[in-house]
Amino acid sequence: MPVELEQLFGTSAPVLARAFDEFPDGVAAFVPVHDAAGALVDFRCIYANQATAAISGVPAGDLLGARLLEVAPAFRDRGPFDAYRRALQDGVPGDLEIGFDANVAGERIDIRLEMRAVRLGDGLLVTYRDVTTLRHGEDAVERMAAIMQSTDDAIVSADRDGRITHWNRGAERLLGYRGDEIVGRRVRRLVREEDFADQMTRFRRTLAGGSVERIETQWVRRDRTLVDVRLTASPLRDRDGAVVGVTAVVHDITRSKRIESDLRRSNAELERFAAVAAHDLRTPAITLVHLGRLLSAAPDGDAETLPARVRELSALVESAAAHAQRLVDGLAEYARTAQTPPAPEPVDLGRLAADVVTALGAEIEAAGATIDVAVLPSVLGDGGGLSRVLQNLIANAIKYRRDDAPPRVRVDAERDDGAWVVAVRDNGPGVGDRDRQRIFEIFARAHADDDVEGSGVGLAVCQTIVEHHGGRIWVDAAPDGGSVFRFSLPERLLEAERR
Q1: What are the DSSP E strand ranges found in 121-202?
Q2: Residue 426's pLDDT is what?
Q3: For 260-289, what is the mean pLDDT?
Q4: How high is the pLDDT of residue 98?
Q5: Which of 27, 74, 117, 404 is packed most tightly, with the most Cβ within 10 A?
Q6: For residues 463 and 389, what is the distance between their CA atoms, to the nearest angstrom?
Q7: Signed CA dihedral, 168, 174, 180, 183: sign only
Q8: What are phi and psi of 495, to 5 degrees?
Q9: pLDDT at 456
Q10: Of 378, 392, 372, the residue nearest 350 (C-alpha)
Q11: Do residues 117 and 84 touch, judged by C-beta distance below 8 A?
């Protein structure tokens, strides 16, 4: 043991050295180094424990006898050397915290150090603590606190007894209470009386370690008005992992709820209009059909005896009447489809497709079409609606075909990002880029100038049905010609039913 250490610690030096060896913090002892003129120019290490070696990256044996500024030259400019000198000369303990990013004995060290130097006899005892992780954690907490305070969403925390412990500025804006008014009060005052039992059930479930995700409800503002909110609640844990409360992120959905309500009302009005229009137009369309037939009826029963102009006008009236009838029927179908769909149930798409192929047997045979149905999944949905989607898409693939090749249609499905995507591929003339969005609008047709009968309603009906299922429908060009109509059905719906 160095003689200087015994001079500093006295007869207790061996005992103290053994005790310091077990310290979690760094401990080192120094004696001053003077130049020929007697000026203090450095400190020489006479003791360093293992924690000091770990912090500095220099073995304890190499530290003994080493000069401070030779091991850590940056200490001269970063403050520690001056703090050590003042502690030695004035006897005032030097407390210092520095960010240290410099060389120590040739190795780069990047840490944050908390140091304390005290005079001991003619030397110094210095303790070192690496607070890098602690400060990083504090910085992270401060950043998180700043985010929580600045976010527009309300963030509310409560202890296990339901007393509010945290209330950010978003909560102040949304619910009207200042933090000093509400912290310490029970969450119950934010909850409608009729919702309290359900809210307590969710609160207890979260305290048990679960979570509540995306619950839509109403909370009570300070002025006793209601606000529509969507909240997510999670357990709040202490450093040992024990649940000490609940924290919730509360998002204001009042505006979206109002827009949703307006859309529902508008949709309901459109549905009523479509139903009434379809009903009121049906009689004139039927009348036109009868009028056309009357015009083409010859007194002697032989239509050929009628003047050519009469026969031409009769054919035009009948054609227009038939088209009007198709539009009326399509409008009625669209109105029915736009209504709220029935409760979903498991649907075997493979069986559904097989039934559709059977129902379209006559059209398939007449067109010489080939229909290939791959293995299709079961989904949760409206069987009648999904049957209409498949029937419309397959029928269109048969109807809109090329003149030089019989229709070939393939129906398959694949998983994609939490959904089943069903594809109906054909080898027809395809759909132009400009028409790929437009054809899903009611009464819109990609081939309006051809001889194929149609009302332009089928794809609009398909889109409405698919959107009722939470999916979407679109069309792409097939790599080898033709089109690929795809629609998605969220798989999570079926998973939710299984739970």
Answers
A1: 123-130, 154-159, 164-167
A2: 93
A3: 66
A4: 81
A5: 117
A6: 8
A7: negative
A8: -65, -40
A9: 67
A10: 378
A11: yes
